[in-house]
Design goal:
globular; Rossmann fold; alpha/beta; 7-stranded mixed beta sheet; two-stranded antiparallel ribbon
Length: 199
């Protein structure tokens, strides 16, 4: 179930977020993109989970991949359609019911909005949705506990060790991890990790 305050924050900021993040040349995450697509077959099928304004989904499409884009925010879905021509399914993490369908899942700073208690079950859904050996990119903010940011959005924080261990328990093999620092929509400078793994 989506968090109402988080959804309200994204509804209010959809256009600002899109212009700031979707329109900028996101060279900072090029290593993460390269690590992810290195494990995909040519023309493979990718799920962009929590696609936001749709810029990554558009990148996958333009690079020749078949893309399914999902986001819980109708406003973000509308922005993705209007700006990039991406058809986004408005759905929540719990709605992912596919089995062995995707060659890759791009969960790029979306699952950090899921409560810690629900996180393992979401990862299991993603593993089921991947073909054997399918690729996962998981972007998360580093820290401890759960809290809201200045915009009211809910976040769950983890250490890199926690994430790596949990992925291992759930049947993923972590291939690489990259840490960095960046400013998000709320303007705070935070540390993140992007884990690339396969099922």
């Amino acid at each position: 179930m989506s968090d109402d305050e988080t959804m309200a924050a994204y509804a209010k900021a959809a256009e600002e977020y899109g212009k700031g993040f979707a329109r900028a040349k996101d060279t900072f995450h090029e290593p993460d993109y390269a690590a992810f697509v290195a494990g995909l077959p040519d023309g493979g099928t990718v799920l962009d989970l929590g696609c936001g304004p749709g810029h990554w989904a558009a990148r996958f499409r333009d690079d020749g991949y078949r893309v399914a884009a999902v986001d819980a925010s109708p406003e973000m879905a509308a922005y993705a359609k209007d700006t990039f021509g991406i058809d986004v399914s408005v759905a929540e993490f719990e709605d992912i019911e596919s089995e062995a369908l995707f060659d890759g899942i791009w969960a790029f700073f979306s699952l950090l909005h899921a409560p810690r208690d629900d996180f393992p079950s979401h990862l299991l859904r993603l593993r089921r949705a991947l073909v054997p050996g399918g690729q996962l990119s998981l972007g998360m903010k580093l820290g401890e506990g759960e809290r809201r940011d200045e915009l009211g959005r809910f976040y769950a924080y983890y250490s890199e060790e926690e994430l790596t261990a949990l992925l291992g328990v759930l049947g993923f093999t972590v291939l690489s991890a990259r840490r960095g620092n960046g400013k998000g929509l709320a303007g705070a400078d935070e540390t993140f990790v992007v884990l690339t793994a396969h099922a």
